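Supplementary notes for students who missed Thursday's class. We covered one full example, reproduced here. Read the sequence, then the structure, then the short commentary at the end.
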Amino acid sequence: MAGRQSFRIHRAMVSIGAHPILEEADLIVSLAIAALAASSSLPPLSTRVLPACGTSQVSITFDGENGHFSGMSHAGTLMVVRNIGVDACRVPALPELRFEDAAHRALSIVRQVPKGMHPGPVILPLGIAPGAEATAELRWVSGDVYDGHHCVITATAIVQIGTDTYKQAFSGQFCSAANTPATFTQTWLKTDAHL
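Structure (token representation):
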């Protein structure tokens, strides 16, 4: 193999005592193992030192992005979580969502669990800098395409972030087969720049 050099340890080298190259290699390996152990046992800095976002620090909006998510019998939106506070804080990467109709009754709409994720991965919280935002895509079947014509119309989205509950106007039609709850998919929140 051209350009590749190897270093072979011979019995004569070991018998004459420690070799400076071997001592340096041992040190490098020890440092690498220590760094790997430290990085794998601790969560990222943003989740270790940031406080949870409080009610006064977060605004939540939904943005259809001019129909970007609309298609053949499908709809969707972008959930935008903005840190309106003066300090960085953290939010769950997968906030819980519920929906109500115009009479404030809970609707049978559930987040679809991706295949192979039972009970699911451990998802670390996400740090959001002051003035920054995190976004998640929501998608669902909006067309009355199932037998049984089972569709529900939402008026409010309820977003649970930690112990705080946020209610936001949310108009959408969710459809499913008869006698089954409507479902939606939700991506994890992500920011453009991580803390």
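Commentary. The first helix runs from residue 11 to 15. Residues 9-16, 36-46 have pLDDT under 50 and may be disordered. If anything here is unclear, bring it to office hours.
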